[in-house]
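Researcher: Here's a chain I'd like modeled. Treat it as a single chain, no partners, no ligands.
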Amino acid sequence: MVQESSAQPGQPATAPGRPYPPAGAGESPWPAQLTVLAAICLQLALPERLTVGPTWLVPALEGALLVGMFVATPRQLEGEHRRRRRVALGLTAFVSAANVYSLAALTHFLLHHNVSDGHALIGSGVLIWLTNFLIFALWYWELDRGGPGVRAAGHDGPPDFLFPQMNDDRIEPSGWRPGFIDYLYVSLTNATAFSPTDTMPLSPMAKSVMGLQAMVSLVTIGLIVSRAVNIL
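Model: Modeled as a single isolated chain. Structure tokens:
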């Protein structure tokens, strides 16, 4: 027996699935702000030869931007705050550029100098890798579906990431939405596996950002840490 479609003549049948976007829900900005602070502290621990100018210069500028973002951010994100978003994206880009510079400087130093201190090399590589892991979690959190403010208001754009919880209502209710810890985990798995694991990128933006993170992580681990092990 063939089941008749409920669609009217001339109209496409409605595909089954959960409604999108899910209902809006406020989100705390504290995890993201603490992540930025942790990344700045990691940069302070780098040797001066791997930083732009004195060791304190770039972290001090980043700290000033972090204070500005703190002032422009409410205690609970419940709607779009364009000023906060501009500051947040600018700060994230600034920290990312500083970390890529440190990686390039360390790679140049490794290729053009006789390196004998493997412990210091490993330490610098670990700091750069950790910063890479933290800062890309911020990128994912800030860019997915239009940003945290848009998501909090329930005005989500098309999803940039397909989380496992979005596939089956038996795992999570249909109103589930990702939080900062979900983006942090995506960043961790991408930085260690050099590819997505359980969460798939959907948009060209998400694929590009994940690809860039994987390249930075691969260079850090493959070139620098392996060379340090040989020195040791």
